[in-house]
Amino acid sequence: MKRLLVIALLVGGVMVGGSYLMTGRWPWVALSPEEEQVAALRDNLGRIRQRWREAGKTQALGVDASSLSDDLPTQVDRLDQAVADLQPQLKTTEAREQAVLLRRDIATFRAEMR
Prior knowledge:
By secondary structure, this protein is an all-alpha fold.
């Protein structure tokens, strides 16, 4: 019985530790509304990157992918402007740090697009 309890605790500890390593936060700590806004903008960047990859794959096949990638630079500009507008309103340190990292990711993605 003790072994079963120890195994259950170890499995739970590994799951919580893995979750922390993947997300950078404990699973029982909820995101603040500010952090949720930044996370939504980060998800938006992920969708834009995915569309960029799909356009690249389509172009590699010899198909015209301009319809897939024409509006992506403007979407990146809008996303960067949204983050820039949101940054002064952020009160928590974590949300501000996440916004700074998101702006760096946007700048990196812009460099990749060129």
